[in-house]
Amino acid sequence: MKKVFSICIIIVTVIVLFLTADCKKEMPAKLAVISTTPVTNITTITATSGGNITSDGGAVISANGVCWGTAANPTTSDSKTTDDAGTGQFVSEITGLAAGTTYHVRAYATNSVGTTYGSDMLFATLGQSPSSVTQPATNVMVSGATLNGTVNANYLSTTVTFEYGLTTIYGETVTAGQSPVTGNITTNVSADISGLTVGITYHFRIKAANSFGTTYGSDVTFTTADSGTVTDIDGNIYNTITIGTQVWMKENLKTTKYRNGDSIGTTTPATLDISLEITPKYQWAYGGNESNVVLYGRLYTWYAVTDSRDVCPTGWHVPTDAEWTILTDYLTNNGYGYGGSGSDIAKSMAATSGWTIYTTSGTVGNDQTSNNSSGFSAFPSGSHGSNGAFVNVDDNCLWWSSTETLATYAFFRYIIYINSDVFGNYCGNSTGLSVRCLRD
């Protein structure tokens, strides 16, 4: 009986093993299991995605990658990558995209059963129409100006121009020196224009265009400088220049008379020591040589400059120290510094020749042909010491202010060939310095 029972157990075991083996043979393969990797490294025309095959479905993976298109749920009939077959994670580099476009992407895996897909993910390539802002004009002269603006190209090559004219119809166009602009940062752009009319208000705006569109900045106006003339009591004619809100003579004062016709004395000889005089009122040609007056003007003691009879023509006056500051602040804040910004404005005021040569960039004496962007036209007229000595012609120019600081001392401004800034200081009132008159 035990023997029969054992035989039965063996037979049942064999049948179970046979059936199990048979079931394993007939288990069908399935589609692979895959997920889509989030999109990264997006540019205007490329991106990175991929997938993770967590199951091959019981069959060999013959192809895998990502597919993409502008419609939802792209398939392998759309654009696709073909990456290394196998299970696990893979990375796909997507190329040939269009800028500023929204795409759908999903990973795929193919085995003998068919192709399965990961979830659909959205991404957008970089790029859009540019942004542009018109900025105030700088370097406004009698017949020219610098037009300014900022542009963000939003990743696409962007052409930048300025439109300008007498009305908001404009009519004239100039290309920015920095055009075309690329990248995704705010970029300063500018263009110089010339051939303008004296004392006229002009309109301008910036225009930025790329493959996605054109944008315009707001309308901004500027008025060209008023280049007139003024005549002193001696009959000397001076050109004038508008700088900001002020109108200056473009030349140093040359008169030998006060406004009422009284003479401003001089010394004989020109090198006479006047240091012991209490309130000397004199004027000199540099070195006592009248031929120097044409270029340099005359040198005056502060006592002559501030005499109530006035040295400047009617409607004009010797500037205060505060009025000199208005000038230098305007030049500093409106792009007249060396390289376009900062307080290193001396070159913008200095004439384009006549200065002692100096090798350091940005100084008055270096590259003198690039001087005088403001039109102030300063020549190095030197000075006259109370001891009678004439010094520093070709090296510096010093101008009186009407502002006294201490008894017998007054403020002046100066530029010098070895520096790039305009300096302020004070000196004895018996010193002979140049004068620039300012319109009332």
Descriptors for this entry?
single chain, 440 residues, Immunoglobulin-like, five-stranded antiparallel beta sheet, 3 domains, mainly beta
Structure write-up:
The protein starts with a helix and ends with a strand. The protein folds into 3 domains: 33-124, Immunoglobulins (Immunoglobulin-like), CATH 2.60.40.10; 131-223, Immunoglobulin-like; 229-439, no CATH class. It has 440 residues and is mainly beta. The protein is built from 5 helices and 28 strands. The strands form 9 sheets. Strands 3, 4, 6, 7 and 8 form a 5-stranded antiparallel β-sheet that branches. Strands 11, 12, 14, 15 and 16 form a 5-stranded antiparallel β-sheet that branches. The longest helix is centred in the first third of the chain and has 25 residues, at 2-26.
What global shape is seen? Answer: elongated
Beta percentage is 35-45%
Distance between the termini: 138 Å
Unreliable sequence segments: 7-24
Describe the secondary structure blueprint for this structure.
Blueprint: H1 2-26, E1 33-36, E2 47-55, E3 63-69, E4 79-80, E5 88-94, E6 102-110, E7 115-117, E8 121-124, E9 131-138, E10 145-152, E11 159-165, E12 172-175, E13 187-193, E14 201-210, E15 213-216, E16 220-223, E17 229-231, E18 237-243, E19 246-249, E20 283-285, H2 293-296, E21 298-300, H3 302-305, E22 316-317, H4 321-333, H5 346-349, E23 381-384, E24 390-393, E25 396-406, E26 409-416, E27 423-428, E28 438-439
Antiparallel strand pairs: 1-2, 2-5, 3-4, 3-6, 6-7, 6-8, 9-10, 10-13, 11-12, 11-14, 14-15, 14-16, 17-18, 18-19, 20-21, 22-28, 23-24, 25-26, 26-27
